[in-house]
Task: inverse folding
């Protein structure tokens, strides 16, 4: 179990950490100092709340993948069991929703057009990856169990 925790920590830092943390920082690094001037503006509180909600979903999904799925969020170390409980009863892709929410929170907090363009590209890439790579792999790995799940639960919400 400790090994699974470490692998999940590493993949969380590498995947959502890069997408939501490092790349956005690179895009807005020149204006970071001017963003944290107190008192914060209303849109910054809203953005921060959405960002936190996104990270909550990400960590919730990582937890479900470890406990229920016995794997990680990475396609390199996938779950051994199909995760269908909790928030996965309402969306087949809540982790992607979490990452997207975190990015939207950053866009609202910073009012950055560069982050908006980046977030849109990331969302399109997520859709393509899910449809072209992830869903075929899940059909192959879990067969009828996954197909039945798809009939009950929508891709997004």
Result:
């Amino acid at each position: 179990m400790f090994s699974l925790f470490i692998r999940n920590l590493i993949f969380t830092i590498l995947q959502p950490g890069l997408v939501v943390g490092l790349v956005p920082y690179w895009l807005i690094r020149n204006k970071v100092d001017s963003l944290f001037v107190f008192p914060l503006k209303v849109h910054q509180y809203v953005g921060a709340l959405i960002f936190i909600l996104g990270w909550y979903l990400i960590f919730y999904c990582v937890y479900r993948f470890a406990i229920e799925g016995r794997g990680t969020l990475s396609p390199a170390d996938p779950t051994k069991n199909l995760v269908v409980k909790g928030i996965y009863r309402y969306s087949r892709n809540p982790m992607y929703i979490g990452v997207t929410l975190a990015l939207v929170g950053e866009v609202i907090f910073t009012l950055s057009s560069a982050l908006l363009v980046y977030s849109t590209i990331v969302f399109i890439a997520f859709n393509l990856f899910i449809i072209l790579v992830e869903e075929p792999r899940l059909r192959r790995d879990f067969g009828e169990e996954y197909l039945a799940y798809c009939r009950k639960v929508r891709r997004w919400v």
Q: What stands out?
A: DSSP finds six helices and no strands in the chain. The mean pLDDT is 93.
